[in-house]
């Protein structure tokens, strides 16, 4: 495992059956990520105030 690569671990909650990912692990040292869904690309941004903004 390369220590310079961010590690994203998904934890499945047995009760809800959902995949849970920490925002800290998801963003690593970035403030924006792209989510590809079908033919669309969404951008998820982390603001300075710690809020999440999802745009298409």
Please write out the topology.
Elements lengths: L10 E2 L6 E2 L2 H5 L4 E6 L2 E7 L5 E4 L1
Antiparallel strand pairs: 1-2, 3-4, 4-5
Average per-residue pLDDT, rounded, comes to 81
Number of contiguous helices: 1
Name the helix and strand elements from N-terminus to C-terminus, one letter apiece: EEHEEE
Number of self-contained structural domains: 1
Written description of the protein model:
The chain is mainly β and 56 residues long. Helices cover 9% and strands 38% of the residues. The chain is globular.
List keywords for this structure.
mainly beta, three-stranded antiparallel β-sheet, 5 strands, 1 helix, 56 residues, single chain, two-stranded antiparallel ribbon, Complement Module, domain 1
Quick summary of this structure?
With 56 residues, the chain is mainly beta. It contains one helix and five strands; from the N terminus they run E-E-H-E-E-E. The longest helix has 5 residues.
